[in-house]
Amino acid sequence: MILSPNASFDLALRLRSTEGAPIGETFAFLSGLYFRGKLAYAHAFGRRPDRAASAFVITTDRGLMPTDAFVTRDDLLAFAGVDLALAEERYVAPLERHVASLIAETSDDTRFVLLGSIATGKYADTLTRMLGERLLFPAEFVGRGDMSRGGLLLRQVADGRELTYVPVLGATRHGKRPPKLSPLTRPARS
């Protein structure tokens, strides 16, 4: 829908322009609740003392991109041409280059939190190999599907509470499904 040359909604029009639209906003549209949760959580709790970008999107062919970096329709088509599951060079090389750059510009005690899936190796293997014990993830993610993780992240942002981070290295990456999140209560309309 967003890539259709006939789409007339604002985001599609911006993606077809030469300027494009922020990758965070674009992926939130494409991925729905899960990415909206990741984006809100990263912006609420991500921090770097040097004020440089602290929230990144892992792309299929450009490594890490700050969530406010602009992409176009052509960029999205290029992303779609690379299969993350194959971990081919077009995916791995730019990711390794950007992670190495982050390592070089941060102190040894800097920790990196992965809000993506650790159930498969498509993100975790490369990042763990490079970051070791410095790569963390929310322990509360184990056993949760994408939608549940997205809902959990949005709840944490609303409550102003960070999740519990544990190293990916040596962690339980698959687990029993936790209880469903309780429904949110919405204030009554007046």
Task: Provide structural commentary.
The chain is mainly alpha-helical and 190 residues long. The chain has one domain (10-167). The protein contains seven helices and seven strands; from the N terminus they run H-E-H-H-E-E-E-H-H-E-H-E-H-E. Helix 2 runs antiparallel to helix 3 (33-45), helix 3 (33-45) packs parallel to helix 7 and helix 5 (89-105) runs parallel beside helix 6. The mean pLDDT is 88.
How much strand content do the residues show?
5-15%
- Count structural domains: 1
Number of distinct helices: 7
- Order of helical and strand elements: HEHHEEEHHEHEHE
Outline: globular
For the largest beta-sheet, the strand count, sense and barrel status come to: 3 strands, mixed
Helical residue percent?
A: 40-55%
Number of strands: 7
- How many angstroms does the end-to-end distance come to? 36 Å
SSE class: mainly alpha
- Low-pLDDT runs of 5+ residues are none
Strand order of the largest sheet: 5-6-7
Mean pLDDT: 88
Rg for CA atoms: 17 Å
